[in-house]
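Hey, sorry to bother you again with one of my protein questions. There's a protein on my desk that I can't quite get my head around. No rush at all, and the record is pasted right below.
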Amino acid sequence: EGLIEFYGSFKEMFEFFCKNTTIHGTIRLVCSGRNRMKTAFWTLLLLASLGMLYWQFALMFSQFWAYPVVLTMSMDSEPKMFPAVTICNLDPSRFELVSEQLEQLERMAEESLTFLYGPKASARLSQLRDRNRDRDKDGAIRVQAWANLSSAGFRLSHNFTLVRMWDPRAGKKHSRVGFQLCNSTGGNCFYTSHPSGMDALLEWFRFHYMNVMAQLPPGLPQHQQHFQDLVYSCQYDGEPCRPSDHVHFHHPVFGSCYTFNSKGTDPFWAATKPGIPYGLSLILRAEQKEHIPLLSTVAGVKVMIHSHNQTPFLEHEGFHIRPGIATTIGIRQ
C-alpha cells in the first residue's frame, strides 16, 4: 500500500497528473481552467502550431506529387572522325593533253553559233579561244607528243551538228534545236532537242567534252600542279595538310576534283574540339585563265561534305562558294 496509491475519483487522478507532468502544452490548456487568460494564450499557441504543421504537410505533399528528379550530368568529349570534303573548280582546267581536241570542239561550237544566230554570236567565243591560245604557246608543242590519244578514242565529227526544227502544227515561230549523237559504228544513237538554242548548244558541247576528257589516262602527273593552282593554303586543326591527305579524281563536268580525308582512317583527321580553329581551313583560287566559255559561265568552287568512301555526285549535291568572300560552314554529326 505504500508503493501504490489509489485515487478515490478520476478528478483526483487528473489533478495529480496536472501538477506532476512535464508536458507543458495541451495539458496546461486543459489543467489551467481557473486562469482564463492562460487558457486563451495556450489555445492560440496550439492553433498556430497546428496551422504551421498542416502548412508544412501541404508543402511536403505538393513536392511529393510533383515527382521532382535530381539529375547529375557528365559530359565526355570523344574524338570524332572528320567527314570527307570534296572541292572542284567550277571552271575546269584545260588539259594540255587534249587541248587540240578542245580547240576543234570550240571551232565546231562557233560554226553552230553562226548557223543558229549569225556570225556576231560566235565572235565573242572566238576572241576568248584565241586569248587562251596565246597565253600558253608552248603547250602546243607538248600536245604533238600526245596526238595519238585521239586515234583510238572518241573523235569529233562534223556530222554531229545542231539542227533547227519546226513543228508543222505550231508554225515556224515555234522551233526547237536538237542534235543526234551516235557511236563510231553509226549505231546506238542519242537524240535530244531543246526549246532554246543555247541550251542545246551547251548540252551538245558538254557531251563532246565528256567524251574528250575520257581519253585522258588515269593518274595524270599534272594533277599536283592543278592542286596548287586551286588550293593556295590548307590547314586542319592548325596543322598544315600533307600531300597524302587529298585524293585526286576527274569529274566529267568540273574537271579536276580533290577529296580530303576520303578513307577516314587517318588519326590526323580525328576531331577532338568543335570550333573554326579546329576544323579544315582552305584558301582557294578560282582563276579563269584557262576558261572554257561554253562549259562554265561562272567562277567559284563547288564544295560537298559527305561520308567516307562515298562517291560525290557533285552535279546534284553540294553547294557553290563564290570568290572574294570568307565562307564558314558548320556541320553537326
Residues 305 and 332 are 11 Å apart (CA to CA). The chain has three domains: 10-65, 80-93+223-321, 96-133+155-214. The first helix runs from residue 10 to 20. The two ends are 92 Å apart (CA to CA).
